[in-house]
Specification:
205 residues; 5 helices; 4 strands; 33% helix; 13% strand; rod-shaped
């Protein structure tokens, strides 16, 4: 009797619960509106969950795959210019070649003409030839002429210029000055010759 009562009581309770469950209109809709559970991406937001470890192009360590085409080659900085100078050494300039002069040597032989002097017989002028510091020649450029003057002027020329005896040096060359002996019979012409000779020597030396 008790068992039959308990069975009836349990059946009634089950029926009531079923009616209550079916009678609530929002239960099935709430169950249908629940979002479907999505797998959680362990690598964080913004990454493709399909790119699993071991897939082509994926980082074996589990990181984001990197493209080899976008990798930039690393450039090493250019070394700065440095000029290394050895310590303790000095640079010396090579000696320059001596300058050569192409001047032609000056001639040591020169002609010097003395001043002209006039006397009562005529005009007298003498020229000397100098080599170095020596008189090597004396020439009477002008002597009185006409009549006896020709004879006296010839004597003066032979004595002072050395035209008298061949191979005999003139008195001017022998003495190297104007202190000459006066030619006999031609005093005025001799004195004028000495004056012109002296002026030529003063110009030459």
């Amino acid at each position: 009797m008790r068992r039959a009562l308990l069975a009836i009581t349990g059946l009634a309770a089950s029926t009531t619960a079923l009616v209550v469950f079916k009678g609530s209109p929002g239960t099935s809709q709430v169950a249908q509106n629940l979002p479907t559970a999505q797998p959680v991406n362990p690598s964080g937001a913004g990454t493709d969950p399909g790119a699993a470890a071991g897939a082509p192009g994926a980082d074996p360590a589990g990181g984001t795959p990197t493209s080899s085409a976008s990798a930039k080659p690393s450039t090493s900085p250019k070394p700065g210019k440095t000029t290394a100078r050895p310590s303790g050494t000095k640079t010396t300039k090579a000696p320059s070649a001596p300058r050569t002069t192409t001047k032609a040597p000056q001639s040591t032989t020169r002609r010097v003409t003395g001043n002209g002097f006039e006397n009562e017989y005529g005009y007298v002028q003498v020229q000397i030839v100098v080599s170095g510091n020596r008189i090597v020649e004396a020439v009477a450029l002008s002597l009185p002429s006409g009549g006896e003057s020709d004879i006296h002027s010839g004597d003066v020329r032979d004595t002072y210029d050395g035209t008298g005896a061949p191979g005999t040096p003139s008195e001017v060359v022998r003495k190297q000055n104007a202190n000459l002996n006066t030619v006999s019979g031609a005093t005025e012409t001799s004195n004028s010759y000495k004056q012109s000779l002296r002026s030529a020597i003063e110009q030459a030396f």
